[in-house]
Fold this sequence. Notes:
- The chain has about 350 residues and is an alpha+beta fold.
- The chain is about 15% helix and about 30% strand.
- Strands 4, 5, 6, 13, 14, 15, 16, 17 and 18 form a nine-stranded mixed sheet that branches. Strands 2-7-3 form a three-stranded antiparallel sheet. Strands 9-10-11 form a three-stranded antiparallel sheet, with no helix packed on it.
- A hairpin with a 6-residue loop joins β15 and β16 (about 230).
- It is globular and about 65 Å long.
Amino acid sequence: CLIENETHLFTKASIVTQARLHSGYHYPRSVATAVMSDDNKARFTKEHEAFINFRFKKYYAIDKFGSFTDALQFQRFCEYIDIKCEKIDRHPLFNFHRIDSLYATIEYTFDPILMARYYISRLEESAKITILNNSGIQQVHQLPESWKLEVRHLKTNAVKTIEAPQVINATYAGSNAINRLFGLSNIELMHEIAEIAFVSSAQLKNIGLTVMDGQFGSLMPYGLSGLLSLSSVAYTHHKVSYDNLPSFDCQEINTSCRPDFTANCNYCPARPRSNQLKMITQIQHYFSQRVEMQYFNSLFTIKSKHKANYIDDGRPTEISVLNENPRFYCIFAGKINSIYEIEKAVKF
């Protein structure tokens, strides 16, 4: 039984992403995350080939000013985990007055919208899976060998009772709220209200650029949509919460969004004003004057990560067994190609 707060599956952080299929380049300060990303890439790519954009050239750049990783460190890092890193000395679309070093790499993007449709279809076709949309857990009872859940429909208030021998908590930003309902421990998280901006560009239709390593930005094709997703370390994250539950001042305006039961930022009247202009201005510094961009729209969501990774920016997948009998798993993963880690821990 799949219990989902929202009216539809895959409407929050699942689609509010740069849709990067990580090869490891993004984490020179967290080798463990980089290796895990590259290890899982081949299998994920093979199983989701129809939803992956292979048809663009991906570049990584080192900014001339203020990078945490210099060119030599980045090259050594790529050599160490054995990923392509070919230095490019000239390119008509890039501004080498601002770029210290430019590298041709291999990195793809997946299409989260098409992938969501595919998995929703598979779920709906399965006679073994029940989906409860618009639903939230109201109360939990621990029995000797199972969990008894009272699940409330958020629109009709109808209550359904479910008994299960094990529970998997895979709610990302909502992880600790669910853990607490079951009387179990928190995982140490921090949270950010994040914005991904979407733009189009005739010159950059088949090009992606990520500037390393600091308060810079990244521009990549958003799957097969024809749009480019734009993210910025400086401007994507509007608000931050260091509480284990996502607590923000905008929840005082929109009281239907609570730390223990967050709403969808895209429909929220209290969501932050877009930083799209700052994001576009920032990324344009790395391109020549012939490159033009047109803003399309933005999507907002709550992004979460372990507090311990604040320094190295790592995104390890954590699968914890918080209760043995009956079994309760808490799965926290911020990278889509780490989904296979579940096979190492969960017993069916």
